Amino acid sequence: MYMYEHLVVFRFNDQYEPSREEGLLSTLRALKGQIPGIADLTAGVNVTEETENIHGYTLGLRVTFEDQEALRQYGPHPAHQRFVSMLEGIIENVVVVDYPILP
């Protein structure tokens, strides 16, 4: 059984106000204590110096799950869905990458 990594980057639209950033990050960081199966979680603002590669993605999330089933349970979990509802009207695009952490 493998742990799973869940990577997400967010690109916001013109309706997004940077003043909302801390609220979004706080909500994301709190998921670790609210959703079973999360082994580790980090979230933050994109500060890469590779500006040609940002493509408008300004917020990142990395969640390590205990197993694939925990990853599956994460999406529909009410705490995750509350975060998703915070994105309504401000999100332009999201990229998600999930992969097993192989030994």
Which helices and strands, and how do they pair?
Blueprint: E1 3-12, H1 21-34, E2 38-45, E3 57-65, H2 68-74, H3 78-86, E4 91-101
Antiparallel strand pairs: 1-3, 1-4, 2-3
The 3D shape can be described as globular
Largest sheet: 4 strands, antiparallel
Helix content: 25-40%
CATH topology assignment: Alpha-Beta Plaits
Structural class: alpha+beta
- Outline the low-pLDDT stretches: none
Strand order of the largest sheet: 2-3-1-4
Q: What oligomerization state is this entry in?
A: single chain
Number of separate strands: 4
CATH architecture: 2-Layer Sandwich
How many domains would you count in the coordinates? Answer: 1
Protein name: Dabb family protein
Pfam families: Dabb (PF07876)
InterPro entries: Dabb, Dimeric_a/b-barrel, HS1/DABB1-like
Organism: Paenibacillus tritici
What do these coordinates show?
The protein is of the alpha+beta class and 103 residues long. The protein has one domain: Alpha-Beta Plaits. Helix content is 29%, strand content 37%. Helix 1 runs antiparallel to helix 3. The longest helix has 14 residues. It is globular. The termini are close together.
Task: List descriptors.
103 residues; alpha+beta; Alpha-Beta Plaits; 4-stranded antiparallel sheet; 3 helices; 29% helix; 37% strand; globular; Dimeric_a/b-barrel
